[in-house]
């Protein structure tokens, strides 16, 4: 894996589940600075493209100065477990070892979707997304959903997406979820651009979704267009073994290549998709479309919505927390 990654910066964009619109412009390539330990900083500016589109090979973009942080902090014992994290094939990660969200790596979305022409994010969700509901503590990212009146909504929560984008590879997150009715936490992907048209034609991949009232199960899904402007999805459910559930830390992952999508929990394959395509105004587009484009990563915890039949929290609900130990992206040629 090349040490210098393709570097690209994007304008502030509005991206959402169910109604993803194509971006109209893209910022130019930005500057990258590189150097080795033992040398002074070298102020040389490069434009570099460093990934290929071979089957199974991860392609990625990242941002200036952002390097994977792989050294565990011995004082952060709450989330971090003792593990060997010399990870072969790693191309991007956030280990959440700091004391605040890395603004170079993540952008917080704000509101209810109205700025994007949506009502309640298109899913009848009940929360207002705020940056104040996300934090980094004890080696983990924390997203809290709260009962609080804010901007005409009854609940608040947070939703984040990465500044980096990826095409193919293994995408992994270790997550602990609340067993709270009405919660809808998710770890998922949307296209950076939408070359095949508005959702669902340009695709969506849900690596993990959970119904808070059902901690013993989780699910994944892929969305695309079966007919013009008609959504189709492929989905399945994973049931946790006896003695554990989503309220403990588990690793959720997707292996993404041009010929297959594989969903796993703790390394256990429970769903595989081998055939797909999409439909645009110009007609049917065969596999690997729409999943042959760069996608970015999202983490959020919605409240209510259609995913669990519009279930709402109990009357005594005050708050619920989703914890993320790490997010990692691997090149599949060398990933474990």
Number of domains: 1
Shape label: globular
Q: What is the number of beta strands?
A: 21
CATH-scheme architecture? Sandwich
- Briefly, what CATH class? Mainly Beta
Summed up, the helix count is 0
What summary fits the major beta sheet? 10 strands, mixed
| CATH fold-level assignment | Jelly Rolls
Rg over CA atoms, rounded to whole Å, is 19 Å
- In helices, the fraction of residues equals under 10%
Spans of at least 5 consecutive residues with low confidence = 1-65, 71-77
Structural class: mainly beta
Summarize the structure.
This protein has no helices and 21 strands. The chain is mainly β.
Task: Give an overview in words.
There is one protein chain. The two termini are 14 Å apart. The protein has a single domain, classed as Sandwich (Jelly Rolls), CATH 2.60.120.200. A hairpin with a 2-residue loop joins strand 18 and strand 19. It has 336 residues and is mainly β. Strands 2, 4, 5, 6, 7, 10, 15, 16, 17 and 21 form a ten-stranded mixed beta sheet that branches. Strands 3-8-20-11-12-13-14 form a seven-stranded antiparallel beta sheet, with no helix packed on it.
